[in-house]
Amino acid sequence: MKEDRCVLITGGTSGIGLETAKIFLKHGNKVVVASIDEEETVGRAMDELKPLGEVTYFRLDVADEKSCKDVVDQTVGTYGAVDVLCNIAGIVGELKTPLEADLQKVNHVIQVDLMGTIYMSVYAGRYMKERGKGVILNTSSICGFLASNVSVGYHGAKAGVNLITKVFAKELAPDGIRCVAVAPATVRTRLMDPSIEEEASTLHMKHRVEEPDEIAGVFHLLSLDGASAINGTTVMAEDGFCSFKGVW
C-alpha cells in the first residue's frame, strides 16, 4: 500500500538517515533529505535515492536555528506539509573524559544532537499542529541510559533527547501528533570508532554491531498508524544491549 506522505529526514544523506530515506521512498512517500554533508557525499546519496521515488535535498546545519526553520519552510513550500519528521542528524564527538575534553567541542555536540532536535521539532511541530496530524521521531542512544566516562556531551545530549521527546509528546498529543525516540546501540556508520567493534559485538544479542538499515526499519514502523499507541517514550532498538549485565 502506497503511503504517500512527506517525510523530512535530517542527516538523510549518510548512515541511518540514508537508509531511512530509502525505506520511506520504497513505501511510496515523498522524501526530503537534509544534511551538511560534503557535495560528493550528497551526490552519491541522491544517485542511490532518486531511482526509488520522489526525493529532494536541502542543505541543513541543525546547530543553526535559522537553517532549521528555512529547511522546514522549504519542505512545506515544496510538498505542502511535513507529515513525518525524522531527527537523525548527529555527531558523537571526542572519546575523551570530561576533564580532558575540549569544552567547545562538547558544546558543539550538544548543539547538534540536542538543540538541533529541538529546533527541527519546534518548526515542524508548528506546521503539524496547524494540520492536526504528524509524527516526530528522534534519535536517542543507549548512551542516554548507560554511562561511560567518555563523550560527556553525547551522553548529555541523548539523555536530553529522551526527555524532550516526552515534552513535545505532551504538548502535541492533543493535536493528533506523536513524538517518539529510537535508541540504538552500536551501529556501523561513520560515527562508529572501528576500535570498539569487537568488544561492542559481544554486548549485542546477535554478536555483531547493528546495521543502519535495521534502525531505519524501526523509524519506519514507528511512523505508521499501526504504532499509534506508542507516544512520548523511547523505543529501545539496541539488540538487547541494555538487557544484561555487560556479559553475553
TrEMBL record:
Signal keyword on record: no
Stored SUPFAM superfamilies: NAD(P)-binding Rossmann-fold domains
Keywords, comma-separated and alphabetical: Oxidoreductase
Superkingdom per UniProt: Bacteria
GO biological process, alphabetically ordered: bile acid metabolic process
InterPro entries: NAD(P)-bd_dom_sf (IPR036291), SDR_fam (IPR002347)
Gene3D superfamilies: NAD(P)-binding Rossmann-like Domain
GO molecular function terms attached to this record: oxidoreductase activity, acting on the CH-OH group of donors, NAD or NADP as acceptor
Annotated Pfam families: adh_short
Family: Belongs to the short-chain dehydrogenases/reductases (SDR) family.
Protein name as it appears in the record: SDR family oxidoreductase
Originating species: Enterocloster citroniae
